[in-house]
Design brief:
The chain has 377 residues and is α/β, with parallel strands linked by helices. It has helices at 21-30, 48-54, 62-68, 80-83, 102-110, 132-151, 178-189, 202-209, 220-223, 237-251, 274-279, 324-342, 357-362, 373-376; strands spanning 3-6, 33-37, 57-59, 71-73, 91-94, 114-117, 159-161, 164-166, 170-174, 193-197, 213-214, 256-259, 285-288, 305-308, 311-314, 343-344, 349-350, 363-366, 369-370. Helices cover 35% and strands 18% of the residues. It is globular, with a radius of gyration of 22 Å.
Length: 377
């Protein structure tokens, strides 16, 4: 019977867990023996007793779990100090975040483990239930609006009272992917007037369907600005200049700006310059959801709330981790669904079929080498 081990996350600020009681019970029913390090679910409100009741065995030391594991579930990729514990031929499922630390990438590969980066799962219909970017970004977009509303000094909806009328808050969402669309929907539900921008043509209809106003330079380059996988392409310097001029004009009228723009495997593009921040109204708020990848705002700082020209700039890393119970639940289901591709029911064993598009597209390391283009190029 293959053994699945789930260690406690040691990456700074990580509150999520890679399993929840629901997924443990289902994986046990499939034939996996599950071991969880004590305290792994504490930050996401799952105690050891809940994991035990679902069928897991609780152990104290991570090294004991790694020593016997055939399969490892993690949220963050193995940290440098964890790589010494990983056994050769183990299968690891986690986020890989290959753009962060090349030294760590190499250390993970040298363990000899077979490693899958779940953020690299192809965005095809068959893989939707395994799409960790979508599940986590959905929660992140919601939370970003809540964080912005908390720091903002006014109410979101228009309020007509005997003492006078309070105008609605104006929100600009930059990037209309999963996180951005959820941010638009959440801000609208709170009563704001919402605008949004994105370089992908398909985003216009999605933004307008949620009641937002679409803001973009809609030229010929704009019409070709989306990859076959549904991601935004890097735009030319000329287009970026035109788009920045439009955004600079738009942003001056906004109360809250939420930036969500990311390019897989590359630093986040700068969308809000220091001059744009200086042009904003006193008391305005920026929520930079891309701060962990370098940031969309020139003045944002990772895990800091800073002020510039009386504009509050929120740079919380790991926004989904600020909703740890829900984020863990969705992430754990993503992993469970991915394991279905590796599980041979008849043999009761883990197998790796590289002819499967999803497996091939998310395989990061094997046999001591990095193999994914995002970390080898």
């Amino acid at each position: 019977m293959p053994t699945l081990f789930v260690p406690a996350e040691i990456a700074s600020g990580e509150t999520r867990c890679a399993v929840v009681p629901e997924t443990i019970s289902k994986l046990v029913a499939q034939g996996l023996d599950i071991t969880v390090q004590s305290g792994a679910g504490a930050s996401s409100s799952y105690d050891d007793a809940a994991f035990e009741a679902a069928g897991a065995t609780i152990i104290k030391k991570a090294k004991d779990g790694y020593a016997k594991a055939d399969l490892i579930f993690k949220v963050r990729p193995p940290q440098i100090e964890e790589t010494a514990l990983i056994q050769k031929n183990t299968i690891i499922l986690s986020l890989f975040e290959g753009y962060v630390d090349a030294k760590r990438n190499t250390a993970i590969a040298k363990t000899g483990a077979t490693v899958f980066g779940l953020e690299l799962v192809p965005r095809i219909s068959r893989a939707q239930s395994m799409d960790v970017l979508s599940s986590q970004s959905n929660l992140a977009g919601y939370r970003a609006v809540i964080e912005g509303a908390y720091e903002f000094g006014r109410a979101f909806p228009m309020m007509m009272t005997a003492a006078g009328t309070i105008p609605p808050t104006k929100v600009l969402v930059m990037g209309a992917g999963v996180a951005g669309l959820q941010a638009i929907a959440t801000a609208k539900r709170l009563g704001a007037i919402v605008s949004a921008t994105d370089v992908r043509p398909a985003a216009k209809e999605q933004v307008e369907s949620l009641g937002g106003k679409f803001v973009a330079v809609e030229d010929e380059e704009f019409k070709q600005a989306e990859t076959d996988g549904g991601y935004a392409k890097a735009m030319s310097a000329e287009y970026q200049a035109k788009q920045q001029a439009l955004i600079a004009e738009t942003i001056r009228a906004m109360d809250i700006v939420i930036t969500t723009a990311l390019i897989p495997g590359r630093p986040a593009p700068e969308l809000v310059s220091a001059d744009m921040v200086a042009s904003m109204k006193s008391g305005s708020v920026i929520v930079d959801m891309a701060v962990e990848q370098g940031g969309n705002c020139a003045l944002s700082k990772p895990d800091k709330i800073v002020k510039a020209n009386d504009v509050t700039i929120i740079g919380h890393c790991n926004m989904p981790g600020r909703l740890p119970k829900d984020a863990s639940s969705l992430y754990a289901r993503n992993l469970m669904n991915f394991v279905g591709l590796l599980w041979d029911k008849e043999a009761g064993a883990l197998t790796i079929n590289k002819d499967d598009e999803i497996i091939a597209g998310s395989l990061v390391a094997e046999a001591g080498k990095l193999v994914h283009p995002s970390v080898t190029s």
